[in-house]
Specification:
- With 250 residues, this protein is an alpha+beta fold.
- It has two domains: 99 residues, no CATH class; 137 residues, no CATH class.
- Helix content is 27%, strand content 30%.
- It is built from seven helices and 16 strands.
- The strands form five sheets. A seven-stranded antiparallel sheet has the order 10-13-12-11-14-15-16, covered by helices on one side. A three-stranded antiparallel sheet has the order 2-1-9, with no helix packed on it.
- A hairpin with a 2-residue loop joins strand 3 and strand 4.
- The longest helix is centred in the first third of the chain and has 16 residues.
- The protein is elongated.
Amino acid sequence: MLKHSGNTEVKARATEDGFEFPPQAMPDGSVIHPESDYKEPLFKSILRDKRLQDAVLTQEKIKAEYTKLVDAYDKAEIGQRIEWPALGRTLIKRSDAFKIRLEPKGAGDVSRLIAKIAYEFGFLLAGREFLLNQKVAEPLKKFIMTGEAQSGLSVMRVDTAVSDYAPAHFISFQVYDSFTKVVVGFFGSIAYMLIAPPLEQGILQRIADTYQCPDIMGVEFQQDLQKGTLGFWALLPDGKNQYIGPKRSA
């Protein structure tokens, strides 16, 4: 997985809580660290700096200058450059407003993963009634197990149509007269659409009755990684939606 900010490219790993990236060297010779753990590596590198040892700086003096440098960095604005000649260090506070490009860790097709997510979400929504469905659930199960193409089943990558980076995962399960559509999105920046044969319109009846939304045509789940919140919406005709849970705090 790669994250980009301007002309800077940063390797990172996607996790359920967002992104993690290790300390790494940049093309200009600098080294980046996540703000959560930059202080200890910075201090160790300063203590090992032969130039400072040759300058006969005492450890107490180095610690004092290091404390001032860290304090100045913590108070800096995004993009500000902190020059610290006493320690021979320059720190730059970079923005974390990255553009995201996700890449698989290894070779392989994600279609079976998307099918598995669709299958499990369908069960979450309709339970046993979905599992017994021969038109959708059964082909999904065979495709997940074998990877063999199934009639009426296809997976493709789609544009998320989100102009700004939104750190959220989502699953949209929609039932139409002629087909079933499931869209699975990761980190608000990449999504896959699964098209399957049509399901019975009553497959979502339990949700329609529970939340009094008789015109329901689908359900969407969202996990906001920044706020740490979850939400479900009933998808209604004409692009409308109705929040159905969990209950929001006042």
